[in-house]
């Protein structure tokens, strides 16, 4: 019940135990095509280039940024938590001239602040996190696409922590590039990064294409400014996932089986229903910790559905509580980074763990552990408040 | 029965269906430590920095090269097949001044040729493939470590296709950096890249360390020449796998389970025994295709144990034979790249598929398909010759 990775859906793990097939076996290439189509549903996009990057969610971020950014490009990174710093770091290593705007952890930017920063910095790319588990808030993105379009700025977001647990619309919101991971609301293991790229992003990336020497033929593209990475060169990855099937890496077959099953289960449930499920169980967890008498951190209006930051009461050892929950109750909750270190626990309700039984069990166990640690808690107040949320939902 | 990826060992797939645990759960960090120790056995090294890169084998190559090479460094890449071109390509994108030497596909370099090239180019790094499946030969490496040491050159090799199927000794041969993959002789799926780095390589890499801004604290390192990639920054990956457990990517838990099981099975079998198993079944397959009357490609003295290149007989459609084997017999064999395209099939005997039953079944099926395609074959000659190899081995 931490901020991720969390337990995977057992159906995903079962899908990952299937035997491998060859890289160009017709059934393998069909699985790749199915995976592309399923993730179009998850991202809510019509983008042809919707595929997997073979690595963790951080690999997806780097593939997008290193392929979109030519050295010297100006990039704007509004930072409201730890993963904004990561976007800055990756953009800097890609050779960008990075401009940042920072706000206090727990808050989000207004569209006017973003537009003002774009006017000031004239970036080629806006790179911003959607939901940042380090602060538990989600940056509203729905008005930023229009702003980027007006200023001719490419619009990238990292939805690793938010996708499928919070409302997200790649096309309706005007995104050019989006990357994710499996280990949060998608209910799978870390190690595969679903991603989608708009036709405008594809045009920018393909303009930098260079076919590698080992498989280059007469007339093939050789760019004067090739993408700095081979592994993350999206122009080559597009050709591997597309009808050309041009050899690049050897697709991580088992991770593909897992990523496909994550999306298949989400599409079968309905992506909107999955978001509503996260909203319900997240609301129950929030009510529950408040019902125990604990304070929560951050702008609740922009809280992510799938994680809540709970202030550690005075006089209580955050690490001791986490240790007792893990060792005696088998329940993991999260610690925190940076300015929040030692101040809050982060409790997740996401993916396979966004369930009534996990919420109630966690609240029951937390009450007992807090009581034993000497904290003042409202007996039954956590579970009771969560039950009320479920009863209201059932009655509505 | 292609050049890889091949069927995974079912025990590896079963290990990958285990439920996830948290990133810093004591059992997870213990699995990481166990994995490091198991791969020291597989690579035959005492290197502390022996770990997994989260991505395919190509990710392992890029992590090693981008972390070892500072832009402008001279790198020598002797090329004897497709994957030498890949090393050149990745080193170039890392900003190296790359010098190549090329020889005909199917042959290998002599130590004297390598030393001569080092004298001429004075590289900081020698990057060379061990076994290249594109040509089916393995470059002898045992004398190159001394040469590199004499000239102060770092020594890197890619053993993706050869490890555990051919004799390899990271420390005895003087390697500074070695990267691999699971999908060949290790019997697992693509998607995790075991790698090992000598103390000398670690020193070069750590001299470039920069802690990322999101988790940087007072006094932490900030390099003036940071590694160009965040995801592949080995100095940060060392800190994640080491006692500091400094957060970097979220380890790909399921792939780690798989990589650990691949190594556990190899160490239980004995790495030398696994190499001998590949030698035996590779010899049986070679004798078998020759027994069918087919010619083989490449320098047989330096042939890899785990793959053989078979010349497609005149008048036979290579693709039609491969299609019939796959669709009617459920057996996949490989096509070829570059100068060998259309000229040879590549037949593998590796990992879980390095078995007597797979060798005999493949030879029996190949005889039938060749006969139906109008080729002249020696009836029973393939299976008979393979049986002889097995009988000789049993009698010795």
UniProtKB/TrEMBL annotation, chains A, B:
Binding site residues for substrate: 346
N6-(pyridoxal phosphate)lysine PTM sites in chain numbering: 184
This protein's UniProt keywords: Aminotransferase, Pyridoxal phosphate, Transferase
Cofactors named for this entry: pyridoxal 5'-phosphate
Any one GO MF annotation of this record: alanine-glyoxylate transaminase activity
Organism per entry: Cryobacterium adonitolivorans
Record-linked PANTHER family: ALANINE--GLYOXYLATE AMINOTRANSFERASE, AMINOTRANSFERASE CLASS V
Source species, domain of life: Bacteria
Record-stated family: Belongs to the class-V pyridoxal-phosphate-dependent aminotransferase family.
GO BP terms: glycine biosynthetic process, by transamination of glyoxylate
Protein name: Alanine--glyoxylate aminotransferase family protein
Domain Aminotransferase class V: 26-333
SUPFAM superfamilies per record: PLP-dependent transferases
């Amino acid at each position: 019940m931490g901020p991720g990775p969390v337990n995977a859906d057992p159906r995903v793990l079962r899908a990952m135990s299937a035997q491998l097939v060859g890289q160009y076996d017709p059934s393998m290439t069909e699985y790749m095509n199915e995976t592309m189509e399923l993730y179009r549903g998850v991202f809510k996009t019509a983008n042809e280039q919707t595929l997997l990057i073979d690595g963790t969610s951080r690999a997806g971020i780097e593939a997008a940024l290193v392929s979109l950014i030519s050295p010297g490009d100006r990039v704007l990174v509004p930072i409201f938590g730890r993963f904004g710093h990561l976007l800055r770091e990756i953009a800097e290593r890609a050779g960008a001239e990075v401009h940042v705007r920072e706000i206090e952890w727990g808050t989000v930017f207004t569209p006017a602040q973003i537009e003002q920063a774009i006017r000031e910095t004239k970036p080629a790319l806006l790179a911003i996190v959607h939901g940042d588990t380090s602060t538990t808030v989600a940056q509203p993105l729905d008005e930023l696409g229009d702003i980027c379009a007006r200023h001719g700025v490419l619009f990238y977001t990292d939805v690793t922590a938010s996708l499928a647990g919070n409302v997200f619309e790649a096309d309706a919101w005007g995104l050019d590039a989006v990357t994710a991971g499996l280990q949060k609301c998608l209910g799978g293991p870390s190690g595969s990064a679903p991603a989608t790229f708009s036709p405008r992003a594809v045009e920018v990336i393909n303009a930098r294409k260079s076919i590698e020497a080992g498989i280059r033929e007469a007339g093939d593209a050789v760019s004067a400014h090739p993408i700095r990475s081979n592994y993350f060169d999206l122009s080559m990855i597009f050709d591997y996932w597309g009808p050309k099937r041009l050899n690049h890496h050897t697709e991580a077959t088992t991770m593909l089986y897992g990523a496909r099953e994550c999306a298949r289960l989400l599409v079968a449930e309905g992506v909107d229903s999955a978001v509503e499920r996260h909203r319900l169980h997240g609301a129950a967890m929030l009510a529950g910790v408040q019902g125990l008498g604990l304070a929560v951190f951050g702008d609740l209006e922009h809280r992510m559905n799938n994680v809540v930051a709970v202030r550690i009461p005075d006089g209580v050892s955050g690490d001791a509580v986490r240790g007792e929950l893990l060792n005696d109750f088998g329940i993991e909750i999260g610690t925190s980074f940076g300015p929040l270190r030692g101040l809050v626990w982060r409790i997740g309700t996401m993916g396979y763990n966004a369930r009534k039984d996990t919420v109630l069990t966690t609240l029951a166990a937390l009450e007992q552990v807090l009581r034993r640690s000497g904290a003042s808690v409202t007996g039954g107040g956590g579970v009771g408040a969560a039950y009320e949320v479920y009863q209201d939902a059932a009655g509505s």
